[in-house]
Amino acid sequence: MRLLQPALLALLVIGPACTGTHRADRLYADLGGSTGVAGLVDAVVAELHSDPRIRHLFAETDDAWFKARLNEQICKIAGGGCDYTGLDMAAAHSGMDLSEAQFNYFVEDARRAMTRAGIRIGAQNRLLARLARMRAEVVHQ
Amino acid sequence: MRHPSHRNFGPAAIGLYLLAIMTATGAQAAEHGRLPATGGALSFQGAAGGGIVPMAVLAGLSTDPGSDWVLGGSLLTLSDFDLATLSFAASFDNRVEVSLTRQRFGIDFDLPPGLPGQIDQNILGAKLRLAGDLIFGGLPQISAGLQYQRVEDFELAQALGARDRDGVDLYVNATRLFLNGPWQRNFLVNAGLRASRANATGLLGFGGDRHSNYRLLGEASAALFFNPQWAFGLEYRQQPANLDGIAASDWADAFLAWFPNRHASLVLAYTDFGSLAGRSGQRGLFLSFSLDP
């Protein structure tokens, strides 16, 4: 099976070239629009509160306020046309000194929430790729 | 010819190292907060990565500060050979990895008298993350590693023209996981360079009558995750032809990897090693597991 070498070469060259070439602003629709994102936000907050590794970080959080900001944030980065009215990410996490592990647990919970909310893998990955860009402003602030 | 299962599998050595490393570092206070599957599998030489090619990722899911350890093993069956491996690897602060591996290489055809049909090799490995991150930020994760290897049964290697029974490999790897890759799937790309004198990864000794110095060898792998638990990928690893008159093909495989949870991985691969130790058509199946308690 001498196909393996050319196949790997093709994967190595073409794969990264294909990354991020998505129809940018269909993501909001693929998340289910305003109804879908509201359901997703509920699922994320429920996951965070039931995760023993990081739920203490949200113990004092005003859930209604947090859900509204998270909804705006996801709507904005998914191309839903919302304005985000909260603090920027660096300011919002200032003084918390969140660890890389805590950030990762959030990502893991968000992934689980998206699956629970019925969002398809492709849309999950597109949203996570956009959220990932905020990491530098969240961790160790 | 002795069958691999007839001899003790060097558990004492691995157990002792395991104990030493665990007690020296107090791994009970470990935080292992990386994302699932980002420790990869344990390769057949012990370093974290895939099946036959290591990656820049470190074993387990350690984050800074924290440590994690992994136990892994693999079985490979080729037309005329088989290989069983057992590895222990630990990582600290997602910065340093150490690994210990015991390999048992079985030769499944009749050898001239005096040549043992079984070759044991020990591998002590270390890997350092130099820069970057697997997923986040602008730079892929870049790591450098070394492997000290020693073959216990040198007779066959010597008969084929190998110079030394031990050697050191040095390698550098860059690995990146694109969250939104082709088909909107997580896509992993890994490429590495290795300086090595090893014949068939050391199973046939180091250096040879045809070429005995270090050579620079390329290796690469890529994988597409259908979902966070399942990935399909390919690996390729260049092999040097150091032994006079003994063809050495590059190694390749196509694999399916399963990461059911944060604690386990299973890899099944179809391997094509081509010509190995003078025997052509060496294809077969490779199965590996890793456990991260």
What descriptive keywords fit this protein?
heterodimer, A: 141 residues, mainly alpha, 0% strand, globular, B: 293 residues, mainly beta, twelve-stranded antiparallel beta barrel, two-stranded antiparallel ribbon, 7% helix, 52% strand
Report on the structure:
The complex is a heterodimer of chains A (141) and B (293). Chain A has 141 residues and is mainly alpha-helical. Chain A contains seven helices and no strands. Chain A starts with a helix and ends in a 9-residue tail after the last helix. Chain B is mainly beta. Chain B is built from two helices and 16 strands. In chain B, the strands form three sheets. In chain B, strands 3-4-5-6-7-9-10-12-13-14-15-16 form a twelve-stranded antiparallel β-barrel. In chain B, a hairpin with a 2-residue loop joins β14 and β15. Residues 1-9 of chain B have low confidence and may be disordered. Chains A and B meet through α1, α6 and α7 of A and β10, β12, β13 and β14 of B.
Number of helices of chain A: 7
The greatest inter-chain interface is formed by: A-B, 35 and 43 residues
What is the number of helical segments of chain B per DSSP (H or I, 4+ residues)? 2
Overall average residue pLDDT of chain B: 92
Order of H and E elements of chain B = HEEEEEEEHEEEEEEEEE
Radius of gyration of chain B, Cα only, in angstroms?
18 Å
Number of strands of chain A: 0
Structural class of chain A: mainly alpha
Overall shape of chain A: globular
What coarse outline of chain B follows from CA principal-axis ratios? Answer: globular
Helix content of chain A: 55-70%
Largest sheet of chain A: none
Q: Beta-strand percentage of chain B?
A: over 45%
Oligomer state equals heterodimer
State the strand order across the main sheet of chain B.
3-4-5-6-7-9-10-12-13-14-15-16
What's the mean pLDDT score of chain A? 90
Low-pLDDT segments, ≥5 res of chain B = 1-9
Distance between the termini of chain B: 37 Å
